Amino acid sequence: MSAPRLQMEHVCCHFEGREVVCGIDLTVRAGEVLCLLGPSGCGKSTTLRMIAGIERPSRGIIRADGEVLSDATTHLPPEARGIGLIFQDFALFPHLSVAQNIAFGLRGTAAQNRARVDELLERVDLQGYGDTAPHMLSGGEQQRVALARALAPRPRIMLMDEPFSGLDNRLRDGIRDETLALLKEEGTAVVLVTHEPEEAMRMADQIALMRDGGVVQTGAPYNIYTSPCDKDAAAFFSDINVISGEVHGALIETPFGQFLAPGVPDGGLVDIVFRPQHVKIDFDRGGRGPNPTPQDGVPALGHVKRARFMGHESLVEFRMDFDGGIVKVTVPAVFLPKPGTPLWLTIRRDRCFVFPNRP
Ligand SMILES: Nc1ncnc2c1ncn2[C@@H]1O[C@H](COP(=O)(O)OP(=O)(O)OP(=O)(O)O)[C@@H](O)[C@H]1O
């Protein structure tokens, strides 16, 4: 197999003696989109800037197609890396026309450059806009010019820092999908920074979930969503419910039945974590509760605290009789029971995660 387009091995970055990013190991292949996802300040932009060559790693190796871009002795400048950049503010040159903006990084003859600019104008659907000034364009059109400019020199890697966050909601989905299709066609390896889980789920082939300067989990969106590495990783993608319990004989007893906690010693504390869409409300048995089943376990009684319609689903909060705690449930329909209504709940046992309880 060919060398990965981008490879980072144990990469760290210090600022003023403080390690803000450390131990980053990532691999991105041609045509693949990796999203760096995480809360503000976790080190996403610093990681991107190290790949771009704007920051120098304090440790580790960054390679593109097997060639060293940064290590202990080498640090190629940004312009020698074959990397394209797109940032949130597009940063188009206001005094240059659209065509001149796109041609900015091209090094060929005038005829070659004109042909490449025309090809890109067509690909981003802006034929006839070559002589226009950037400020005459809408936000979405400017974003497409920025994409064309970044793609023009055929970069092997494209780095994008929150590139869609300045766009109108109605435009964003379409532009995201078009951008992705174009980048895939060009075979560019993409590293995209975002703090929005939905954007990462929509765009990424792989998500690298970051926290406190490190990558805590890497995987396909589906795998990260269905097998989060810990409670915080689960909570990054949706609301979660948590029931805490003590382990005895590798089992935890809860009002929803028993759960397995293999490898946790007696007396150890664990959190059982489940998403609101994996709670079932029993509508059928008039307050008697459903029969326990191996899949759904034991029903527990709660009283509606609050119900809200969210557009494509209803979110119902229950105060549970067993401990007074709250369990959130989503129902993919209009379901707005009155506060105080008693209902039995079961949880999808195959969708529960059991994690050691760390304060
Ligand atoms: N030039 C710098 N000098 C000192 N500290 C810095 C510098 N750049 C970033 N940091 C610090 O490094 C940490 C990571 O910042 P970074 O911008 O990489 O995070 P981020 O995940 O991209 O956040 P955001 O989503 O808010 O942009 C932060 O604590 C930040 O204050």
Automatic annotation (TrEMBL):
PROSITE patterns under this entry? ABC_TRANSPORTER_1, ABC_TRANSPORTER_2
Keyword Membrane included in the entry's annotation: yes
Q: Where is the ABC transporter domain?
A: 6-237
What the entry lists under Pfam families is as follows: ABC_tran (PF00005), TOBE_2 (PF08402)
* A GO term, aspect molecular function: ATP binding
What Gene3D superfamilies does the annotation carry? P-loop containing nucleotide triphosphate hydrolases
**UniProt record, GO biological process:** quaternary ammonium group transport
Q: What is this protein called?
A: ABC transporter ATP-binding protein
